[in-house]
Amino acid sequence: MGQSLVQIYVHLIFHKKSSSSDIDKSIRQELYPYMIAIMKTNNSPVLAINGTEDHVHMLFSLLKNVALSKVIEDVKKKSSKWIKTKNDQYHTFYWQSGYGAFSIGKSGVKAAQHYIFNQEQHHNKKSFQQEYRAILKKYEVDYDERY
Questions:
Q1: Which of 14, 29, 65, 136 sits a CA distance of 20 to 30 A from 57?
Q2: Would residue 147 count as lying in a domain?
Q3: What is the CA radius of gyration of the chain?
Q4: What's the pLDDT at 5?
Q5: 51-55, 85-89, 106-110, 140-144, range with the lowest pLDDT
Q6: Is residue 50 part of a domain?
């Protein structure tokens, strides 16, 4: 086999630092395209992005020559810097240091996109913590409840 073929889809979830201001809907409408541009420069095209006032869900394709941790670090760092420029309310905005990144097979892309695009409806029924615990349980990920 002379070629390397890779198809990796990642469902990424990360939350704002608890002391940071909530992300207003008007800011989110600017934030998501900004994050998509950051991901594009990392050769990681976004297939879906959405969230609520306190967290972001993103589905993207990870290429074979790109390190997952570097892509996530870049999008969080640059978007945090960007949001601080929007107004004084966000002067001390930060993302939490942690994140959840889960692999999705090609057959699961449409379902993941649907789930991400309907974040506001999900959170009419569940808190972020309830949602995140359910996702961890679905993917059978062990976690420390303190975090």
A1: 65
A2: no
A3: 15
A4: 85
A5: 140-144
A6: yes
pLDDT at 1 over 60: no
Q: Is residue 95 part of a domain?
A: yes
One-letter amino acid of 133? R
Q: Is the dihedral of CA 30, 13, 128, 125 positive or negative?
A: positive
DSSP labels for 77-91? HHHHHHHHTT-GGGT
Count of the separate structural domains present in the chain: 1
For residue 134, the model assigns a pLDDT of 85
Q: What is the phi/psi pair of residue 105, to 5°?
A: -75, 160
Sequence-ordered strand ranges (E) for the chain: 8-15, 46-51, 55-62, 100-104
- In this structure, is residue 106 part of a structural domain? yes
Q: How far apart are CA 125 and CA 127, in angstroms?
A: 7
Domain that holds residue 57: 8-138
